[in-house]
Amino acid sequence: MLKLFTQNINVKTKIVPLVWISCSIVALVGILFGMDIGVISGVLPFITKEFNLSNNMAGWIVGSMMGGASIGALATCIISQQLGRKKSLLLSSILFCIGAVIAVFSKSTIILIIARIIIGLSVGSASFTAPLYLAEITPKSIRGMTISLYQFMVTIGILLAFISNLIFSYFQSWRSMFGILIFPSIILFFGILIIPDSPRWLASTNKKNEAIKILKKLRYSNFEVNKEIKEIFNSIKYKNQIFGWNLFKQNINFRRSVILGIILQIIQQFTGMNVMMYFSPKIFEIAGFIGTKNQLLSTLLVGLVNVLATLIAIISVDKLGRKPILYIGFTIMAIGMSILSLVLYGHIGHQYLSIISLLIFVAGFAMSAGPIIWIICAEIQPLYGRDFGISCSTIANWLANMLLGTFFLTILSKLGGPMTFILLALANISFIIFTIFVIPETKGISLEQIEKNLMNGKSLRNLGK
Description:
Growth Hormone, Chain: A
């Protein structure tokens, strides 16, 4: 697998083992994120029966996690800057474990919602910190690939959750579905203990000697260390130590990157991918698949395609670039949703065409907007505004996620499947236009160079030039 991940690296670039170890451990955050996304799709049919849930209450149980995630991302903006990326990730793993334990023993919908909010605090915090950490410790030649690895682990987590959902569905044990979440959070906690903190964060908090010491462990040669340290220190000097909100208020160029990050994360959610994951059994029910086990078995196929398609992004993101992959992905997603809408409208080849169209859509997302949006959001923010900028974009992701997760079933019942999915197809077409005119190509460009272009007033589209 390592050979697969490294085949697109310039042969002159040598990556030290600690980089791979650190990236692999932090990418486990993606497994937590993915497992929670996948678990709720299996839990929902069983708790709907046990607690006699309405569509609205089911939506709130799903959406409560995203509400917690929004708060978690906001709080971590401060925690990550004050305590560092490493301690933020440790806190996330602890919260996730606590939330999973409470969910297992929930006796009412209120307790279950509280558990979901706590899990959300963890996921929101981790989804903010993990891409940030990966962007800051990796060489530019593999930066896109390592952040894609995080998204790959999200898809692995979804697949693992779908597998456990199917297994525990035979015992009708939704509590066991939640219980399985405890184990990866414990593994993540102990893994985080052995990785270094971000040298860029250390430098930004005036721990320059420690930053140099860690960077020497993360780079192969002194030449690389000296060049990168110079870029980091120049960036610090350039910003004159104005942080986050103050930088946002005072600097119009920083405001541009923050707004772009927010829009990108909203775009990612309005592709429709996460609601497909949360409510895939319901969608398969509409498509004609009868019985919870058949619906969960179908979601397993979705999860497998999700994993395999993400490999395309990992292999190609630092070769083809960010924008070409987004063009392809948005086009594929629009085609998939269009086919699904037409199939449901005409009842033609109902079951099998429905699942094929959904698989097309999932593949399009997994190879493009899934990983690429997180990559760009981590790349475009300047050092002293990075915590604030990524926090804003992550909060936007979770708020949009909560909005769709909470009200999707209601929208589906009001508009019907065909109209709902054609709207998603049109949304993806509009995202192609946005990519053409606004999104920058950042392949192979250092974070410091992107920052310099941003602060010099270059258009967003040209930040990578």
